[in-house]
Amino acid sequence: MFRPLPVSFCSVTSGRGHSLFPSRGRKMAPTHVLRCCQRGLAWIPVIFIALVVCWSYYAYVVELCIFTITSIGEQIVYLIFFHLSFIMFVWSYWKTIFTKPANPSKEFCLPKAEKERYEKEERPESQQEILWRAATSLPLYTRTGAGAIRYCDRCQVIKPDRCHHCSACDMCVLKMDHHCPWVNNCVGFSNYKFFILFLAYSLLYCLFIAATVLQYFIKFWTNELPDTHAKFHVLFLFFVAAMFCISILSLFSYHLWLVGKNRSTIEAFRAPVFRTGSDKNGFSLGFRKNIAQVFGDQKKYWLLPVFTSQGDGLTFPTRLVNVDAEQATVTLHPEPNKSSADVPVSPLSESQNRLLSNEQHANNTGDHLANNTLKSAESETITISMESES
C-alpha cells in the first residue's frame, strides 16, 4: 500500500547543502510532534484501567481475603474463583488491545497505471469509471449511498464490504465496528471476538467482586467489624465494582444484540447499501450462523480469547443471491416459502462456502440453474431463493 513520505523526508537541497524548501520542513515538525503526543495521550484510558485492575487485585487478595476474612475455607474458594476470572479478563483485554486491525489485501489496491489515471482525473464521473473497471474482478456487494464504488482516498484502496476508514488509527479496517479508547485500538474483524469476551469477563469479574464483598461491606458500614486499614479498600472496592458492572452490562448487552443480528455498530446506525438499496439485515444469516461467524464452528473455543472467527474479513455472505450485471458476483437475500438451493456462481470465498454449507442441496442445483438460465433473457437480475433462519 502506497503512502506518501512526509515532506521533511523529501526536501531538496541546493549545492551548498541548504534546503530549497526550508519552510515545509519546519511546518511538518510541529505536526509530527503533535501526532506523537496524540498517540501518547491515547494510552491514558488504558493505563487508567490497568491501574484500577491492579488496585482491585491488591484490595481483594490482600485487604479482603488475607486481612479481613478469617475462614480458611472461604479464603481458598474466593481466591480460586477470583484468579480464574482475573486471568480470563486480563487475557481477553490484552488480546483486544494488541491484536492489530486487519487491513484490505493488495488485490483491493488500484493497479499503478489505474492509480495514476485516477489521480490525474478531476471529474468524479471519470474517477468512478476507473473504479468500476478495477472492481469488476472483486467480490463487492455494497455501494455508497449514491450507488458508487466505495474508495478510500487516504489509504488508496477500494473498500471491501463492511470495511471503513478509522481516522484515529489512520487506516482502513476490515469489518470495522468502532474505535474504542478504552483499548486504544480499532475493534473489527481481527479482534471483535476478543472484545466481546473482554466485556463478558470484565462483567463477570465485577459481579464476582461485588457479590463476595457485599457482606463485608455491610459489616464495615454498620461497624460490626473494627476500623482497620482494610475498611477503606473494601468499601471503595464494592462501589467501584458495582459502578463498572452497571456500565459494562449495558454495553455487553448491546453487542450481544449486534452479534445476533450480524451487524456492526456502524451498520446499526447506517444500514449498508446494496445494489437493490439499503438493507439493515443484509448480512444476517439467522441467529445460529450469525453467532458462528464471530465465534467460529467449534464451541469448545468460544470462551477462549483465541481467533476462531469465520472467513477472511474481505467477503461476507448476504441474504439474497443476485447476479450482478457489472460483476461476476453474488449477493444473498431471503425469499420465504421457497425451497433452499445454492448456486456455484464465482467468486465465492472460503468463508462464504463454509457459512452456506448447510444450505447446499446438490440434487436441486441443476433444476434451478436451468430455470434461471431461461429467466435471464427477460431480466438482468436472477434471483435464487435461499432458506433463511429466523
From TrEMBL:
Residues 150-269 form the Palmitoyltransferase DHHC domain. Pfam families: DHHC. GO terms for cellular component: membrane. Residues 348-376 have a biased composition (Polar residues). InterPro entries: Palmitoyltrfase_DHHC (IPR001594), PFA4/ZDH16/20/ERF2-like (IPR039859). PROSITE patterns: DHHC. This is Palmitoyltransferase. It comes from Amphiprion ocellaris.
